[in-house]
Amino acid sequence: MALADDVARFQPNDCADVVAASFACSVCLRRVSWLVLVEADDGASAGCRCMHCDVGWVVSLDTGQYMRMVLAPPPGLLTSRSGSGSIACAHPSAAQHEAQPPGGRRGASG
After folding, report:
1. What is the pLDDT of residue 90?
2. Strand 43-50 relative to strand 86-90: parallel, antiparallel, unpaired?
């Protein structure tokens, strides 16, 4: 497990808003743009990214929290498998951020 910047602060039976808030950006408090769940022999963690602030962080998860994210992630987080032991989750707005170049519109010459 990667060295964690934070610890998830939710119970597996908490409402979806509380679960999602556990992964919020500590800089701007926006909902996480990108989240990758990783299960290792020594525990589970979530690699998080905020597209607005361009910062990343790691949140450690206990077994119950990891299972909640695998089986019932908060609505609005899209999940897909990305290799063995990992699940990638993205907020729908992340696709918009990735589709737009950092400086503005596509095809615009500067």
Report:
1. 58
2. unpaired
| Identity of the residue numbered 51 | M
**Amino acid identity, position 21:** A
The pLDDT of residue 95 is 47
Return d(Cα 33, Cα 31) in angstroms, integer: 6
- Domain positions in the chain are 6-99
How far is Cα 102 from Cα 50, in angstroms, rounded to an integer?
Answer: 14
60 DSSP β-pair partners: 7, 45
Torsion region of 7: left, alpha or beta (phi above 0 gives left; psi -120 to 50 gives alpha): beta
pLDDT tens for residues 54-66?
A: 899 999 999 999 9
Which pLDDT belongs to residue 51?
87
Kindly report whether the global pTM for this prediction surpasses the value 0.85. Answer: no
Strands (E), the chain: 6-7, 34-40, 43-50, 55-61, 78-81, 86-90
Angle at 83 between CA 50 and CA 95, to 5 degrees: 35
